[in-house]
Amino acid sequence: MSGANRLFIAAATAAAVSLLLYLPDREDGSGATLGGLLVLGGVVLVLVPLARYRPLPKRSLREHGQLILQALALGAGLGIANLLVNYGLAISRSAIHEQMISRWAQFSTWSVVISGPIIEEVSYRLILLGALAWLAARFTNSQRTITRVALGVSSALFGVAHIFYGGVDDPVYMVGMAVKSAAGGLLLGWIFWRWGLVCSIASHCAANGMHLLLMPALFQLNV
C-alpha cells in the first residue's frame, strides 16, 4: 500500500469518526475534532505493520459482499449470545438487573448501533490490535504467534475495559462482563484479521443492534 493510499484511508477513517462523535451532539465539536486527529495519527502508524503481518487477499465486490453478509450473521448470533449472558447475570443479582435496564435506557440507538461499534472497532481492532502485532513482531518472526498474541491481548483488554462500563461493584458482574466481552472481542478480532475492518464493524453493529432489539422482550420477564 502506497503512502498516498495510507493517508487517504487514515483521513477518511478520521473524518468518519469525527462525524460519528459530532452528529449526536452539535453543541461542542472539540471532542470530535480531537478524536478525529487521534484516529488519523493512529491509523497512519498502524496501516504499515498491518499490511506486513496481515496481508489480505484481493477480493471482488461480490466476495466483499458475501463476507459482509457472513459478518452480519455472526454479529447477530453474537448479539443474541451476549443478551443471554446479560440475562443470566441479571437474574442472579437484582442490582445487576436494575443497572442493566437503567444503563441501556441512557443510550441512544445511534450510539449503540452506529457510533459505538465503529469507534470501538477502530480503537480496539485497527489501532490496538495492529500495534500489538507490531510489538509481537519485535520478539518473534512466527506469523502464527504474532496473530495469537495480537488477538489474545487485544481481546483481553477489550473484556477488561467493559468491566468499567456498568458501574456495578459485584464480582459476578465484573467477571461475567470481562469474560463475555473478551469472547466477543476475540470473534470480532478474528473477523477483522481475516476479513477486514468493514466486516468487523458490520458484525459489531449487528451484534449491538440485535441486543437492542431483543432486550425489551427478554427483560420484561423480570420487570
Dominant shape: globular
Q: Write down the secondary-structure element order.
A: HHHHHHHH
| Distance linking N and C termini | 54 Å
Number of strands: 0
Percent helix: over 70%
Low-confidence parts:
none
Strand content: under 5%
- Count the DSSP helices: 8
* Alpha-beta content class: mainly alpha
Describe this entry's structure for a reader:
By secondary structure, this protein is an all-alpha fold. Helix 5 (109-136) runs antiparallel to helix 6 (143-166). It starts with a helix and ends with a helix. It has helices at 3-22, 30-53, 61-92, 94-106, 109-136, 143-166, 171-195, 197-219. Helices cover 85% and strands 0% of the residues. It has 2 domains: 1-53, no CATH class; 60-219, no CATH class.
Features of the shown structure:
0% strand; mainly alpha; 223 residues
Short structural summary:
The protein contains 8 helices and no strands.
List the helices and strands and how they pair.
Layout: H1 3-22, H2 30-53, H3 61-92, H4 94-106, H5 109-136, H6 143-166, H7 171-195, H8 197-219
Helix pairs in contact: 1-2, 1-5, 2-5, 3-4, 3-7, 3-8, 5-6, 5-7, 5-8, 6-7, 7-8
